[in-house]
Design a protein that fits this description.
It is globular, with a radius of gyration of 17 Å. 35% of the residues lie in helices and 24% in strands. The longest helix is centred in the N-terminal third of the chain and has 16 residues. The chain has 8 helices and 11 strands. The strands form 3 sheets. Strands 3-2-1-4-5-9-8 form a 7-stranded mixed beta sheet, with helices on both faces.
């Protein structure tokens, strides 16, 4: 069976993270990535805490640093990731509950829980997988719950290429030694990110642009969308959960 280019890109992302789980955990825990150490790690923690949640889903949790940080601040956190090797690393460090689940699993209702906040920290790399997470979000969120997404800022991540949605080559530059093949990633314009929130009944309530203290350039962008209190869940024609604003 021939796979589409989208399927091949998504498979390449999964393969790259499977091969690089151990060096990634080392890079995060040894704080090798300057932008994370200097600005973006604290920025996502503050963005989540501003919403005053009690129960949080860390979707695409990786080796679990954010789940542990939020737990230490008094929140009940579930960390999920599609890569079993990363979940094994996260569980070994402890600190909260971790389980294996892809965004498609979340969209299919595999978790069976609802949260005050769902957070994705540099964890939305594909096209179809990102859209699966957005399809899942309304059913994962309590009324007035929030989806918080931190990603590479489109105006600093375009690398001089045309400013339009499309697949880009990945890189482990700045992450330290031990990495193999990089994961491709799907570049989205600012407009495209905003549309994802509005199209999935998660209107934006905040948009933050953390600035790197050394370069003076945006290190990331953080979107916060809120599920309306009147949002009701219904099954669409494909059997998936869809949100309908009442």
């Amino acid at each position: 069976m021939e796979h589409s280019p989208e399927d091949r890109h998504e498979a390449a992302i999964r393969s790259a993270w499977q091969r690089n789980a151990a060096p990634w955990a080392d890079a995060v825990r040894q704080q090798r990535i300057d932008s994370r150490r200097l600005v973006t790690d604290q920025a996502i923690v503050e963005a989540v805490m501003r919403q005053r949640p009690k129960r949080v889903l860390d979707a695409g949790c990786g080796e679990g640093w954010l789940s542990r940080r939020l737990t230490a601040l008094g929140l009940a956190v579930l960390g999920v990731d599609a890569q079993p090797d990363l979940i094994d690393v996260a569980r070994a460090a402890g600190g909260c509950e971790f389980t294996v689940a892809s965004y498609d699993d979340l969209a299919a209702g595999s978790i069976g829980q609802m949260f005050d906040a769902v957070v994705c920290n540099f964890a939305l790399l594909g096209r179809d997988s990102t859209e699966a997470l957005f399809r899942a979000a309304p059913a994962l969120l309590d009324p007035r719950g929030t989806l918080v997404v931190q990603t590479l800022h489109p105006h600093t991540g375009d690398h001089g290429l045309p400013y339009r949605n499309g697949w880009r080559e990945g890189s482990w530059a700045g992450c330290g030694p031990g990495f193999a093949q990089p994961a491709p990633w799907y570049f989205r314009t600012l407009e495209s990110w905003v549309r994802l929130f509005t199209d999935h009944d998660l209107p934006l309530i905040a948009l933050d642009e953390p600035v790197h203290p050394l370069t003076g350039r945006p290190a990331s962008v953080i979107f916060t969308g809120r599920r309306p209190e009147s949002c009701q869940l219904a099954h669409d024609s494909g059997g998936r959960l869809a949100a309908e604003a009442g």
